[in-house]
Amino acid sequence: TNICLFLQVLRQFVRHDSDMVGSLVLERSMNRVQLLGRVGQDPIMRQVEGKNPVTIFLLQPMRCGEQGNQKTTWHRISVFRPGLRDVTYQYVKKGARIFVEGKIDYGEYTDKNNVRRQATTIIAEFRKTSFG
């Protein structure tokens, strides 16, 4: 039911305070993203010298009930965790419908014209393929 789902979500963001028996304290900060969508390209694996490889792909979230002009939004998904990274690279394909849970990461890079750019990436911590 909706109440059970609400309680499950609430438990993720609340902890027990050991000093005060029975009271709940909201965490001070949170960085969590959940996306359900279609993969826009076959994942690629990149490795920078001296660093662990990363699997990268684009995800377009599902939009329910929207009418009229729709803006297409793409999210860059990066998968660093070794087991998840390798399975994602091997089995996720363009057009697959998947659920991704992770955190937002903001960074900068210098493009090939030596211009500094900002980039937003979702760092995947969990991925589940949904068939259909």
TrEMBL record:
Q: Does the keyword DNA-binding apply?
A: yes
Predominant cellular place of this UniProt entry's protein: mitochondrion
* Alphabetized UniProt keyword annotations: DNA-binding, Mitochondrion, Mitochondrion nucleoid
A GO biological process held by the record? mitochondrial DNA replication
Which Pfam families does the record associate with it? SSB
CC annotations in GO:
mitochondrial nucleoid
Under the heading InterPro entries, the entry gives: NA-bd_OB-fold, Primosome_PriB/ssb, ssDNA-bd
The record's annotation in SUPFAM superfamilies points to: Nucleic acid-binding proteins
Any one Gene Ontology MF annotation carried by this entry is:
single-stranded DNA binding
Q: Which Gene3D superfamilies match?
A: Nucleic acid-binding proteins (2.40.50.140)
Q: Where in the cell is it found?
A: Mitochondrion matrix, Mitochondrion nucleoid
What PANTHER family has UniProt attached to this entry?
SINGLE-STRANDED DNA-BINDING PROTEIN (PTHR10302), SINGLE-STRANDED DNA-BINDING PROTEIN, MITOCHONDRIAL (PTHR10302:SF0)
Q: What is this protein called?
A: Single stranded DNA binding protein 1
Gene transcribed to yield this protein: SSBP1
